[in-house]
Amino acid sequence: MMTDEQYMEQALREAEKAYEAGEVPVGAIVVINGKIISRGYNQVEQLNDPTAHAEIIALTSAFNYLGAKYIPEATVYVTVEPCLMCTGALYWSKVGRIVWGADDEKNGHARITKDNWPFHPKATVQKGVLAEKCAALMKAFFREKRG
């Protein structure tokens, strides 16, 4: 089995795909029993869909792969703190563990949820995995966009 850092490197590869496509560089993977079962990266612009976040794409792919709507045995790795919409999707899919890299003070769920636990009651969270690397990709993207 890989470490959280190694899995986050895989999520970062997805984020780099988003970056190259001109999308906000967020990537996500879904892991069950040590196996990556799905991947996703932001495709909001490409699909003209504000819900096409990395987590949503990775979750939908995982549901289709497993033929299930609940994945309590899954760990979702995402490069940036999930927004409120993605947090809701993680809640409703009963994901057992959520791991993210960089916090997102502007658009992350914590801006709204504050001290209230927004994930499934049985879920656990690990944050700050490769945070500097994840944040650097976001900063580079927005620095480039602002020119």
TrEMBL record:
| Amino-acid positions noted as binding Zn(2+) in the UniProt annotation, renumbered to this chain | 53, 83, 86
In this protein, the active site sits at 55 (proton donor)
Q: How many cofactor units bind, and how?
A: Binds 1 zinc ion per subunit.
Asked whether the keyword Zinc is assigned, the reply is yes
Q: What class of enzyme is it?
A: hydrolase
Q: Which cofactor does it need?
A: Zn(2+)
Catalysed reaction equations from the record: adenosine(34) in tRNA + H2O + H(+) = inosine(34) in tRNA + NH4(+)
Under Enzyme Commission nomenclature, its number is: 3.5.4.33
Which UniProt keywords are present, listed alphabetically? Hydrolase, Metal-binding, tRNA processing, Zinc
Q: Where is each CMP/dCMP-type deaminase domain found?
A: 2-114
| Protein task | Catalyzes the deamination of adenosine to inosine at the wobble position 34 of tRNA(Arg2).
- Which HAMAP family does this chain map to? tRNA_aden_deaminase
Oligomeric state and interaction partners are given as: Homodimer.
**Similarity field:** Belongs to the cytidine and deoxycytidylate deaminase family. ADAT2 subfamily.
Query: Under which name does UniProt file this protein?
Result: tRNA-specific adenosine deaminase
Which gene carries the instructions for this protein?
tadA
